[in-house]
Design brief:
Helices cover 1% and strands 40% of the residues. It is an all-beta fold and 334 residues long. A 9-stranded antiparallel beta sheet has the order 10-11-12-13-30-24-23-16-21, with no helix packed on it. The mean pLDDT is 98.
Length: 334
């Protein structure tokens, strides 16, 4: 089956490529401080290469992003079992049959591409036939807006995200330790082994998780601390200061080497900062060699394992209730 690649461009020369295989983001070219376009995301040259995408480069993750403890959950008294694909836990629904490995029906309209997919009842272990639409729009403000819409015919849980890996230097072979990150989050959720939240919501003040002001990614990433050792660096969920449903800035990242800055906006309650600790050696687009910590992810989401944790806001949607959320990655120079 042939897959299509859609290219979005704006008046500033920014370019984005998206494929109908998995609704995956393949390329994001943004101008650096000298006006030269730099591709700032990891990925592959062809849609077919995303069939073997163990790191989830550019992935549209669904139905459920992140982890679910013991690969099971209970909804209205009924237990649902999922694939145990991350030790005993479930991670990103399914590496082989998740949204990022499905063929989507796609159409382009100017600077937007709309992709549709129907996930059948029981798909991945989840209840309900889910009609999903994901729309990517490139704005003239150099923003890539991702709009997720879904409706299930049964009560279910939904928590989609985009898993693009960013390196704002334009050199995808270089470390992201010198990138400076700011998160609009004064709290985070500590984890136990397996990266499952403990159930606590903890203040970041006075810890290596305090990104409330700009902090270099590599400053403390290798400190001998239990929370870092458990996941080999940063791979943690941060609770955003803004209220769920309020579209607000969640993060800023900048790289002095290129002068490129990225702002992240969302209406979701949380964001996962993943420093690419487990990117394994592989060849990406243009023959570039990828390895660990050469890119980072900022995944907007509900809290991992929220369905099993009493204190967390739950991504539960009734039959016919619309799942409707937006995330934006907006680029500029400084």
């Amino acid at each position: 089956m042939g897959y299509k690649v859609f290219e979005l461009t704006n008046k500033n020369g920014m370019r984005v490529k998206v494929t109908d295989f998995g609704a995956n983001v393949m390329e994001i070219h943004v101008p650096d401080r000298d006006g030269k376009l730099q591709d700032v995301v990891m990925g592959f040259d062809t849609p077919e290469e995303y069939k073997d995408n163990g790191s989830f480069f550019g992935a549209c993750v669904g139905r459920m992003a992140n982890r679910i403890n013991d690969a099971r959950f209970t909804l209205d008294g009924k237990e649902y079992k999922l694939a145990a694909n991350d030790g005993k836990n479930n991670l990103h629904t399914d590496a082989n049959t998740g949204f990022h490995k499905m063929q989507w029906a796609a159409k382009q309209d100017g600077n937007s591409v709309e992709l549709k997919f129907v996930s059948p009842d029981g798909d991945g272990g989840f209840p309900g036939k889910l009609d999903m639409t994901v729309t990517y729009t490139l704005t003239d403000e150099n923003g890539l807006v991702i709009h997720y819409e879904g409706v299930s015919d049964k009560k279910t849980i939904i928590n989609c995200t985009n898993h693009s890996y960013f390196n704002l230097s334009g050199d995808l072979t270089s470390s992201i330790h010198d990138h400076e990150l700011r998160l609009y989050a004064h709290q985070y959720t500590p984890v136990v082994e397996g990266a499952i939240p403990t159930g606590e919501i903890t203040k970041v003040a006075g810890t290596v998780f305090d990104f409330t002001e700009y902090r270099q990614v590599g400053k403390s990433i290798d400190d001998d601390l239990e929370q870092l050792n458990l996941v080999q660096g940063y791979d943690h969920n941060f609770v955003l200061d803004s209220l769920t449903g309020t579209y607000a800035k969640a993060a800023e990242v900048k790289c002095d080497r290129s002068g490129i800055k990225m702002d992240v906006y969302t209406d979701l309650p949380c964001i996962q900062f993943y420093a690419g600790n487990l990117i394994y050696p592989q060849t990406g687009k243009g023959g570039v060699k990828y390895d660990k910590r050469q890119a980072f992810c900022l995944e907007t989401q509900y809290t991992p394992d929220a369905i099993n944790q009493p204190g967390f806001e739950k991504p539960i949607f009734d039959a016919g209730q619309k799942y409707d959320t937006k995330t934006e990655y907006r680029f500029s120079t400084y």
